[in-house]
């Protein structure tokens, strides 16, 4: 459906019921109300060591990001006043760049870790660097699990309905930052410059144990009013659950692209292994809701 908005997120529930409201790339904008600004820190450079190890032994930007386990640590490493060259040297190219009339935003994904700031009880999944005049003006973070969600009407059961004779599927692809042999690069309006996926999905589902739709309201700190969105609750059968568990266990910290039919929908970060085969696909506009509603209503249901 060219030209149709596919804005949304995927919440993947593990045994702790942690809901991932933000994807690696697509959901950073939707998470802005959950961001916490950085306090001013000294930009005095650390003294250069007497002898530096060979360049080959130093951590790569990707390794440096993966090693971060503390907001406090990030506040010391990425401070206001740093230049873009210094950022690139430490963290590499941003996963996504957004340009506005007032500033440039560089967005980086992080291996999820428990928040150690005012957002304790959530997980940090990324950082957003506000750049003005070639320097860091502010640093924000993206969190998951911080919003209060309320529901209205009871969930509407879906699945088992007609779909014009077409086979209905959900496909899952792990996303790589490097080219994949025989694969392709995902770059859509909703998922710009996402990354590389293989030619075949890691998992294809053509049936579900249960699927339902419910309207929800999300109250976020600092937001003037609740955000209305629609959640598609999907529960996999035993076979798919086992496969999904293996995929998410082996790819914690990576993005997982979800495709409905042939349409890329969302690409959230895998926060933790998913043991129960339950996923929640969330969309924030009615057009996307209607598309997924029709698609998932045609999904076969296991007995």
Instruction: Kindly state the percentage of residues in helix.
Output: 10-25%
Assembly category = single chain
List low-confidence stretches.
Answer: 1-9, 13-57
**Count of extended strands:** 18
CATH C-level category of the largest domain: Alpha Beta
Secondary structure tally, helices = 5
Distance between termini? 32 Å
Average pLDDT: 74
- Briefly note the structural class of the backbone: alpha+beta
Q: How many discrete domains?
A: 2
The CATH architecture of the largest domain? 2-Layer Sandwich
How many strands, what sense, and barrel or not for the largest sheet? Answer: 6 strands, antiparallel
CATH topology of the largest domain: Gyrase A, domain 2
Shape: globular
Order of helices and strands: EHHHEEEEEEEEEEEEEHEEEHE
Radius of gyration: 20 Å
Strand content: 25-35%
Task: Write the topology of this structure.
Layout: E1 8-13, H1 61-67, H2 71-77, H3 84-91, E2 96-99, E3 104-114, E4 123-132, E5 135-144, E6 148-151, E7 156-157, E8 170-174, E9 184-186, E10 195-197, E11 203-205, E12 207-208, E13 210-219, E14 227-235, H4 238-250, E15 256-260, E16 263-266, E17 278-283, H5 286-297, E18 300-301
Parallel strand pairs: 12-18
Antiparallel strand pairs: 1-17, 2-3, 3-4, 4-5, 6-13, 7-13, 8-11, 8-15, 9-10, 13-14, 14-17, 15-16
